[in-house]
Amino acid sequence: MGGKQGVASHAAQIEKAWVEREWV
């Protein structure tokens, strides 16, 4: 697993969750 890629993917998921929560 590429460390940086994994972190970026995880961060993207968190960001998406935050955006969805803010818009709901």
Order of helix and strand elements from N to C terminus: H
Average per-residue pLDDT, rounded, comes to 80
| Gyration radius, rounded | 11 Å
Identify low-pLDDT runs. Answer: none
Q: Biggest β-sheet: count, sense, barrel? A: none
Instruction: Write down the overall geometry.
Output: rod-shaped
Alpha-beta content class: mainly alpha
Give the beta-strand count.
0
Strand content: under 5%
Q: How many DSSP helices?
A: 1
Helix content: over 70%
Q: N- to C-terminal separation?
A: 33 Å
At a glance:
The protein is mainly α and 24 residues long.
Description:
Helix content is 88%, strand content 0%. The chain has 24 residues and is an all-alpha fold. The chain is rod-shaped. The chain starts with a helix and ends with a helix. The mean pLDDT is 80.
Draw up the topology in text.
Elements: H1 3-23
Q: What distinguishing features does this structure have?
A:
24 residues; mainly alpha
